[in-house]
Amino acid sequence: MNLYEGWTSFVAQCVGAISPQMATNWVKSRMQLSAYTAATNRGPNAGWRPGNRSADNLSRHEHALIVSRARDLVRNSTHVSGALERIANNVIYTGIKPQAARLTNAGELDHGFNRKLEQHFKDWAEADEVGFDDIQRLILNHLWQDGECLLRFYPDPDLMKQGLAPLGVELLECDHLDSSVDGLRENGNFAIRGVEFNRKGHAVAYHLFSEHPGDMRRLMSRESVRVPAMWVRHIFLPKRASQHRGISWMAPVIMEMRDFSEFQDSHRIVARLMAAFGFFVETPYPELQNPLGLDDSDVPERPEAFIPDYVEPGQVVTLPSGSKVNEAQFNHPGATYEPYVKTSLRGSSTGFGMSYEAFSNDYSDASFASARSATLEERRGYRVQQVLMGRKAIIPTWHMFARMLWLSQLEPSMTGPRVPVGCQYPGWPWVDPTKDANAAEKMLGMGCTTRRKICAERGEDYDEVVDQLTRENADLKKRGILGANNA
Questions:
Q1: To 10 degrees, the CA torsion angle through 175, 178, 179, 182?
Q2: pTM here?
Q3: What's the pLDDT at 374?
Q4: Domain encompassing residue 282
Q5: What InterPro entries does the entry give (predicted)?
Q6: Domain contains 49
Q7: Count of alpha carbons within 13 Å of 58, Cβ hemisphere only?
Q8: Radius of gyration (Cα) for the chain, nearest Å?
Q9: Helices 111-125 & 132-145 angle (0-180, nearest 10)
Q10: Tally of domains within the chain
Q11: Cα dist. 33→2, 36, 46 in Å?
Q12: Which one of 426, 446, 479 terminates a domain?
């Protein structure tokens, strides 16, 4: 027994000699202090009792509503749509490129073979029928809006007629999954809202609608088609081990951004109402007003002047004797408006993994040091998303592409369908070029980094940079600009 428990027992015995009930309450209160305060049932949090269900069960009924609300914000909120556009510009930019990594017998990279395969992939990805770079941006947007999407592959002989790998690819929204396919299946597998798993917990098939269920222009069958998992990539990032379907990455900020949008709309309405009034006239002749809105011809003639409803520029108006004109003045939106806006946007920017300055496009209060720190932190988050995209979308697409290229025999030098691959991710320019270049040079001299890594951080392909430098030096020599001593 420790000192805390010993003291509690001693006091309880002393109090119990007088009142056992008081001693019992004393022990209970002391035990609560030694437990987790997060589990207290008193005070304003007494009604806070969230369910402790699995991730799939929690999102089973709320998923559709969360997705529809997230999509609505992307359509109608300037801050949300701008944030997703900025995220895609940093994560995807012009596209994540696969890099083949086949080794020779000597253990060196086979640059010639790799260049051929990478060129095949580039030609395929840039084809109008494929548009893989655009698909990459769509994948990221759907991850933020819906939390998941489906990348479906299929053989496309028409591409082979153009000399391209006969691999077709289409991106499907999560709505294509037949959520009614749920529970134990006849073949012994089990399904979770359209995704079929075997007894080991591996996805073996996806039950997909042929058309989008929300497309009202077409008469479609409500029966889904079972597609083997080898032709489908289910792209999502689980937050819990019990999660087999994605949830919108925007879920934590949906209500906050919705409230902020309504707050903005309310202030716009107030501003319009205030703009409708220019002057207020105080007059001792209320009978001169025209409350019924009658035309001048319908109002009986009076010797006094009427008070007009609207004043034209340069108009001369004679007011009744004793009237006073007061200019309409409103103290709106008030001193609390700007602090509330900044507080709301700061909270939402955290949910998007962005700095307040980048999310709100407001750099008025940012110093260079704080902006630099925020930019570096943002880029770390962008890199995480890039790696996720590479692992979930780019590399699986490459493996399917290499298989189809090998089967089509468009590249005779391929000896098999499996070619190791990495990813060349888009990088960023240096925030402070002079200091960053000096730091990179020092780290290179200390052996803490490599030229290949420095190029990769800037989004450049080291091999392409070296090849370009070699060609440029050869061209300068040929033109007599670069001497032998400078080569």
A1: -160
A2: 0.80
A3: 84
A4: 278-327
A5: Phage_lambda_portal (IPR006429)
A6: no
A7: 14
A8: 34
A9: 70
A10: 3
A11: 15, 8, 17
A12: 426
